[in-house]
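Reviewer has doubts. Consider these tokens.
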Amino acid sequence: MEKRPARVILVNPPHSLEERYGSMKAVGNTMPSLGLLGLAGFLRGRGFTVGLIDSPARGLSFDATVREALAFSPDIAGLAAYTPSVHNAARTAGMLKEARPTLPVILGGPHVSAVPALTLSMFPDFDAAAVGESEGHLESLIRTILDGGSLSGIPGTAFRRDGEVVVTARAPELRDLDSLPFPAWDLLPGFPAAYRPAAHTYRRLPSATMFTSRGCPEHCAFCDRSVFGNRVRAFSAEYVVDQMEVLVRRFGIRDLTIYDDIFPLLKPRLIRICEMMRSRGLNLTWSCNSRVNFADRRTLKVMKEAGCYQIGYGIESGDQAILDRITKGFRLEEAEEAIRMTDEAGIKAKGFFITGHPGETLATIRKTVDFAKRLALSDYQTCFFTPYPGTADPKALEKEGKVEVDWPLMNLLQPAFIPAGLSRSDLVYWAARSYREFYLRPRIIWRYVSNIRRPEHLVQIARGARALAQSVARSWLVRLPGRGG
């Protein structure tokens, strides 16, 4: 009798909108995990029967998540976690083990890739972990666990042996990304209508997300590169546009967010993608991320003609000394020119900033707010400097301020590092105040009002206005005597 395919349940553990976004939960996103979607497609292509539960996207409780996972009758469970959700992943693993003690549970994702030994030593309900990029070794890891074999010869693996955590050498990077199957969107209940991006990150609905490359060549001090590393590998233009076409023709997608760190990095490929999008009549509106030193007028024109409506730039600070310290690798003048060119091309420019860098002062925060207001930005976002595992060394940071390493609270929305000379209240106040100063200006308000074209735009504005009102109220609640502008 032929052996049935092994059944693998992939789980993104519960992580509520409030846990992820705090007071900004009204504008939070409920988009599915691209990492798990890709792994589901990969494992299915390797002969496994695969189920997928994206609890944050669906708003599932722990009980509902575990109930649904067990109903799939899995032979093995794979959980994914970022740093703020790893405790929730451990709780989910514990509940699965309580119901089925013999069920193997493995963990993957950025957090365990950064600190595999520490993670497994803290959470005994994970039997093993897939470290780094998973496609090269996940199949072997799963089959070896199910067959009861030794994991010591499988690269990119963390496991326990005689009470000690063993971490094998990293698996080689996957070179041919086009060999991967498309993400398993069909495993998502109600896709795409049941999933929604954050407010002001889409133009039309239904919307979807995509990666077209892996790795980032830059060395920003605050960024974790423990999964994909610094070497950039890209899907071919043909593969990317084929995937877009499936989203459009099969699922009715009208809008796309491209999550690559620097989508315009490989310009000939980018131009080819844009040309193919137009020739196939995909009629997508889309946004992406870039760096200010990759902006040029010709490329921006091509992107605009292919439907690009917004580019997000990681600017981080309006103080050059801080930019140099975090190794951003560009000058403030380059940021100004890039944002100006983007705006002149008819593409909205979004600025990403960080509050509370090492070396930050009230004066540098003020400079950053003023710089953001001076730029031709349509949207502004700031978060708090967060020393994630795999990035800044907490011990080194202790010489420059107070480090508060509490994994569930490391969601970028509350300070995990307090620079010397500042307080938590300083950071919270100025982050909230920066939103108030940026958005409550006639130019920004008019731009939002004048861009209303469809009913969903009104919904976006209403959700954003509600979050902004909460932010404004928050800035006044924590205002400190003598801390005025």
About this structure: The radius of gyration is 23 Å.
